[in-house]
Amino acid sequence: MSALPRAAASLLALLLPLAAHATQLAPIFDAHMHYNVEARSVISPPQVLDLWRKVDIGAVLATSRPNDGTLDLMALKAPDIPIVPFLRPYLRQPDRYDWFGNNREVEQYVEQELRRGIYRGIGEFHIFGADADAPYMAKIARLAKDRGLWLHAHADEDAVERILRHAPGVRLIWAHTGMSTSLDKVEQMFEQYPNIVGELSYRGDLEQDGVLNPRWKQLLLKYPDRFLLGTDTWITPRWGQVEEIIAGYRRILAQLPPEAARKIAYGNGQAMFGLR
Predict the structure, then answer these.
(1) Rounded to 5 degrees, what are φ and ψ at 31?
(2) CA distance 155 to 163
(3) What pTM was computed for the model?
(4) For the chain, domain boundaries
(5) pLDDT value at residue 235
(6) What mean pLDDT comes out for the span 179-197?
(7) What residues contact 132, with CB distance under 8 A and at least 6 apart?
(8) Is the CATH number 3.30.300.20 carried by domain 31-273?
């Protein structure tokens, strides 16, 4: 081996750990956060911000039940952690099961909240299979398309496709990227619908024994502009797991090329919502 290749190899060996270290220190855009009514009695808004700063969450997509939790966090006006508010169509936990079907209280609530003019999307909402053909779901999809809002759907692939038929071109964040949807189907959906972005919380197949699943790595590198990370603090105990969740994401990011890792960590959310 000549001196030049040896020098290049030595430089590469030096830079790779530095790149991984930089990824570990990069801010995270948390694209799936709930500050629900139950959590508000356990962790205060200032404590939430302190936790985010501790783990270097640099921006948050907030969707709470009811939306008062999101409004409380926004009221702190933290300049270092911009909050992207989404309107969740739930007043109470049982609404997740029938919000889309003749629930006039939910419909009035959504109409009232939209008048604030602050929301960047609607969700996270739960919808599965043929329920996505409910008239109110179709109305919400078309409203989002017309107003330039995102949808944030906890849904199976069947429901996602039905939603996209109601409002072709509407932009949709797929919570948990289907959670248990096969990766072949995920890839097919991403190829067919360029307006889908996948959020990765609760995808238990992301890692195998602490190593990024090769099939997932292939997908993340094929679509580095279309994935987001999320803590999904849907129940109060998840707040005590945020540090562990973020550490797991950083472990995954460190196994990706730096540019792809940067996009998935923060850059995609930044581009989607015009953040600094």
Answers:
(1) -95, 10
(2) 10
(3) 0.91
(4) 31-273
(5) 97
(6) 98
(7) 100, 155, 158, 159, 160, 162, 163, 166
(8) no
